Amino acid sequence: MLEIKSHQYLKKFLAKYDYEWEHIFAFGKIISRSLRVQDNCLINSEIFKTDKWYVALFISLLLNEKDVTLIISERKINFLKRNLFKKLREFGFNFSVIGNTINCSRYKIFLKSLSTINEEISIYSKDFHHSFIFTEVENIKKDLKKHLS
To answer: Which helix H or strand E contains 10, and what residues bound it?
Structure first.
């Protein structure tokens, strides 16, 4: 089960690297469950103002082994490339990053900003089975109107 595997990996990762947030395991479980059952999940938390939650998200995404699109700002994409991805590779995850795509052996994680997703929205038809994860949703309604109109 994805939740158990993500919890185990997250526990080992946290032991190796200096990350602390008392609710990280609960957050990881919510993300993993949502990915496993392909359910919509909206989480509103003060933790999103920090970078502490990305490790739980990416461990779940990398263990999920399915294509997913993560809607995230360019600034955060660059931050993740400089900081978290190196640690995840050192930890044992096997992936490459080409442009804004994380390439794993059988699946990809697409990192898109709201402005770039607008350019590609037509490729997503009703037959396209793919998960989307939106981050930084404080002004999602306004941002979606701005980028998708």
So the answer is: helix 2-16
